[in-house]
Write a structure and sequence with these properties.
about 200 residues; mainly alpha; about 60% helix; disordered N terminus
């Protein structure tokens, strides 16, 4: 049965609410509460309740949800069947999850592509899906985020010499996933803009 006409498709919070209300083409029975059902609770109903609880308020990757079901000792067969079903109707969408994650973490935390890729990998996102999402990052936005990080940190380094400031600022950008070339360029330019001497990157011996 096609579900592409569902008004909630693509909105996890609305989808969870719709499923819980039984207003979608999905099974319309009330979602049981395993706490009140006791030890005889239907394993599939329990697993469905776990998934809906996990998706309430935020999207999650399939791997995160799979790990949660495993932790709750949900049988693999039931877990896979439900995860497939949730994915089929759009409640689980790793591509949308990856893009939303990047949209929040890249400007919010100033993370570069490399750091974002590591985070997505920890979330269980397939490398190809992550790459496609990361390719949408505008290099100019990435540089702007790096400059904001440096400008904010630089305000706390007024009492240290330029060499120390450079080392700390480059280290900050490295931890955020920026390569050394970009890091030194941004730091040098921001130090100059602040009226401080430029410091060349150390040369290898």
């Amino acid at each position: 049965m096609s579900v592409t006409s569902d008004p909630w498709r693509g909105d996890v919070a609305a989808g969870v609410a719709a499923w819980t209300r039984g207003s979608t083409p999905l099974p319309a029975e009330a979602v049981p509460d395993p706490v009140h059902q006791g030890p005889e609770a239907d394993p599939e109903a329990v697993a469905r309740k776990i998934l809906l609880d996990q998706l309430t308020g935020q999207a999650r990757s399939r791997k995160e949800l799979s790990d949660k079901l495993a932790k709750k000792l949900v049988p693999d067969e039931i877990a896979t069947r439900l995860l497939d079903r949730f994915e089929e109707v759009g409640l689980i969408d790793d591509d949308a999850f990856a893009r939303a994650w990047i949209a929040s973490r890249q400007p919010g935390k100033g993370l570069a592509r490399r750091a974002l890729a590591q985070e997505l990998r920890r979330k269980g996102i397939d490398d190809e899906i992550a790459k496609e999402a990361l390719d949408d990052i505008d290099p100019a936005d990435e540089e702007t985020a790096a400059r904001r990080l440096v400008q904010k940190k630089l305000r706390t380094l007024s009492r240290v010499d330029d060499a120390t400031a450079t080392r700390r600022l480059v280290g900050l950008l490295a931890r955020k996933g920026y390569g050394s070339g970009v890091a030194f360029t941004v730091v040098r330019e921001e130090l100059a803009a602040a009226g401080r001497d430029e410091v060349d990157p150390p040369t290898s011996r």
